[in-house]
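Troubleshooting: if your tokenizer reports a length mismatch, compare your output against this known-good record of 253 residues.
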Amino acid sequence: MGAGHAHRLYRHGHSPVHALPPHTKLTAVFAFVLVVVSTPREAMWAFAAYAGLLALVAYAARVPAGFLLKRLLIEVPFVAFAVLLPFVAEGERTDVLGLSLSVNGLWGAWNVLAKGTLGVAASVLLASTTELRELLLGLQRLRLPPLLVQIASFMVRYGDVITDEMRRMRIARESRGFEARGVKHWGVLAKSAGALFIRSYERGERVHLAMVSRGYAGSMPVIDEATADRAQWSYASLLPGAALVVCLLGWTL
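Known-good structure output:
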């Protein structure tokens, strides 16, 4: 984890949110999501308040609304599932625009959309203000099992390597006049996938032997120690703290 690794979700900046230690942001987002999930679905105003809190975080992090909304498209499958709920759920029915919909299904769809969207938005803001390397350091600081951190680190490092290998293989096929146009070409693609698997496996073996020859004994050395002072923890706790107040009001009002 000694080398930086940029990802497409990350937006370089120098805002106060970017400057927070990664483990404080991870804790804040996790606590915020727990609070959102614990909010009663009938308290619609509370979810609007949560959205306002995330908008303030995005403003402080200088993350444009277009950048955030474009990344929210990842939840489209969940939106499709939520849209189906009023049609397939059982229980009391009501007519909406001439359609017979389930009341429980409507509440369930709202629950999935509201809480899912807020959770995804919080995760996107976290990824937009924290590099992958810093996220791994934050997980390490939060005492996540070291083996899981190592697996995630290797996935981050070699995901792009395998993707680049796939790109080179595709260029090699196209340079020889190959174009996948139908079922009859699936055999060639299957052979390419097999070759990619073998190359990736061999690369993994070579990397492991190189690590062992350099003293690897099951744990990675800690190069950077991420620390946070009381002021940074206080700043990071503003989001989940304000959300908790909204949640309590949602249960009592």
